[in-house]
């Protein structure tokens, strides 16, 4: 899948460049494309340097949380909920703890760190699956929750914005929180309908209703604020939440007699190992996206969409953020490349870049998650997993666009 997508970028770019040369007389298009390849290769290394630090930092803190028992506590706290949502998983099964840890990594926006944990959780769920080739209900729910990717602290998005020179990298904190809530709610509801889960169960409602009331009250509070106040609040909450979570991990770890420094270094080493394997993929996708943009093919496609949006009488500023949304279901690395490229060409704090960052933080990569997670346990029939995940992803994209017009429009 990724092979075809990556090759397709170059083929489309080549066709577009030939058309510009033979029809438009632009003989310099090939020099522009070659220059873009080298520029994107350099940008990949610049991004990678910061990515090394970010993953190393947060996996270090996550290991402290794990050794301090915070993850186990979360597993116990969420156990009654998972018992209703995944009735085939016995109480206390190791899969619950792994799912909780995976969700914690996703919540922190550490999608690269969440993947290896998620694979362990999927293998644990496969041990309970009576079929070797057909996805179980629990595996489908887990996959859709990963695809919707509830993100409360999108540190990697903040990192990309910081790397591109954003004055306030956490400006998109609240928009991402609201957009990812849309995708997660739609994902959960779609799976519950397909699997006939009893969301009205008293235990499930005891978890969902307070969360829904809190989110609803929070949104009601936000409606009373101006766009300037919303942006300021997003910045304050983003930074406060990030530092508060770090202190929470450290304080609880110290109280539990965890050697926090040693635990941090242990987790940081894992973060370094995860990060160093990402450079080839980042170079590959950024160079492909750079060639596509330099050839004029991407601009041509976006112009077509822009004309349709204008014909419908809508504002067109969000159109430049759509490349991130269009490739997100297929490749996380391609979506990251599109996001970075949008920030570089449009300006890191431009409206399209803010929308693209919010889209990137609101959902995961459906087909990539499907291929990796189900492929790891040799699942061949995904059943309703794809439809529910794509529906959640669409809700996240539409929510991101709407929320950005609310905050920054």
Properties at a glance:
single chain, 409 residues, mainly alpha, 78% helix
Q: How would you characterize the largest beta sheet? A: none
Strand content: under 5%
Q: What gross morphology would you assign?
A: globular
Specify Rg, calculated over alpha carbons: 22 Å
Number of E strands: 0
The helical percent reads: over 70%
Uncertain ranges: none
Tell me what you see in this structure.
It contains 18 helices and no strands. With 409 residues, it is mainly alpha-helical. It starts with a helix and ends with a helix. The relative contact order is 0.16.
Give a short summary of the structure.
With 409 residues, the protein is mainly alpha-helical. The chain is built from 18 helices and no strands.
Question: What order do the helices and strands come in, and which of them pair?
Answer:
Blueprint: H1 2-22, H2 29-67, H3 70-85, H4 94-107, H5 111-126, H6 137-148, H7 155-163, H8 173-195, H9 202-223, H10 227-255, H11 260-276, H12 279-294, H13 297-311, H14 322-327, H15 332-346, H16 351-362, H17 366-376, H18 385-408
């Amino acid at each position: 899948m990724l092979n075809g997508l990556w090759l397709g970028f170059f083929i489309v770019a080549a066709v577009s460049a030939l058309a510009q040369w033979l029809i438009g007389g632009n003989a310099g298009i090939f020099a522009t494309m070659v220059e873009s390849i080298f520029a994107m290769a350099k940008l990949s290394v610049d991004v990678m340097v910061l990515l090394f630090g970010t993953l190393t930092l947060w996996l270090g803190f996550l290991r402290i949380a794990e050794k301090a028992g915070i993850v186990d506590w979360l597993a116990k706290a969420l156990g009654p909920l998972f018992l209703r949502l995944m009735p085939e998983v016995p109480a206390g099964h190791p899969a619950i703890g792994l799912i909780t840890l995976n969700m914690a990594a996703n919540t922190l926006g550490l999608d690269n760190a969440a993947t290896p944990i998620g694979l362990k959780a999927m293998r644990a769920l496969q041990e309970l699956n009576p079929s070797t080739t057909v996805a179980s209900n629990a595996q489908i729910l887990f996959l859709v929750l990963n695809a919707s990717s509830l993100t409360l602290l999108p540190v990697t998005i903040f990192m990309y914005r910081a790397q591109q020179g954003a004055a306030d990298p956490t400006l998109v904190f609240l928009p991402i929180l609201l957009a990812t809530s849309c995708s997660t709610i739609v994902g959960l509801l779609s799976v519950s309908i397909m699997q006939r889960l009893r969301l009205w169960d008293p235990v499930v409602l005891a978890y969902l209703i307070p969360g829904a009331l809190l989110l609803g009250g929070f949104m009601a509070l936000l409606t009373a604020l101006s766009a300037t106040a919303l942006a300021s609040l997003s910045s304050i909450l983003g930074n406060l939440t990030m530092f508060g979570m770090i202190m929470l991990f450290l304080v609880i770890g110290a109280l539990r007699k965890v050697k926090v420094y040693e635990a941090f270094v242990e987790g940081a080493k894992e973060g370094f190992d995860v990060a160093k394997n990402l450079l080839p993929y980042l170079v590959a996708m950024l160079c492909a996206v750079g060639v596509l943009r330099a050839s004029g093919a991407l601009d041509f496609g976006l112009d077509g969409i822009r004309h349709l949006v204008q014909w419908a009488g809508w504002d067109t500023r969000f159109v430049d953020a759509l490349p991130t949304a269009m490739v997100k279901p297929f490749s996380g690395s391609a979506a990251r490349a599109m996001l970075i490229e949008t920030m570089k060409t449009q300006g890191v704090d431009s409206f399209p870049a803010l929308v693209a960052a919010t889209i990137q933080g609101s959902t995961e990569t459906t087909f990539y998650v499907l291929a990796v997670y189900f492929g790891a346990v040799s699942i061949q029939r995904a059943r309703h997993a794809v439809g529910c995940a794509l529906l959640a992803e669409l809700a996240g994209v539409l929510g991101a666009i709407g929320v950005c017009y609310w905050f920054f429009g």
